[in-house]
Write a sequence for this structure.
């Protein structure tokens, strides 16, 4: 996934845990967040909830990329959910759509 984004000239930062992700988002204010619900420690659903409660980060577009079960109810329909093994085109399409909003 990171390689596909980098090859399309996106800058990519990688975090492995909820805390690391939140710190990175708060420090760098990325244009888009792509995350898995299966993070080390606190889940990605909790991380997403924390991002949305924070006025500084709630407007950052987010995309879930996971192999964990069905669509989590807390995401509603406002956030794309992709499989980790999705095609590069599907990933890039979701990122482009996130920037269009």
């Amino acid at each position: 996934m990171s390689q596909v984004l980098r090859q399309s000239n996106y800058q990519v930062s990688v975090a492995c845990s909820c805390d690391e992700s939140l710190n990175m988002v708060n420090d760098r204010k990325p244009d888009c967040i792509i995350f898995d619900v299966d993070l080390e420690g606190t889940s990605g659903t909790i991380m997403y909830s924390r991002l949305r409660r924070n006025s500084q980060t709630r407007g950052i577009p987010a995309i879930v990329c996971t192999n964990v079960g069905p669509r989590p109810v807390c995401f509603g329909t406002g956030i794309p959910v992709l499989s980790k093994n999705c095609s590069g085109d599907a990933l890039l399409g979701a990122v482009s759509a996130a920037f269009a909003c």
Notes: The mean pLDDT is 86. The two ends are 22 Å apart (CA to CA). The first strand starts at residue 33 and ends at 35.
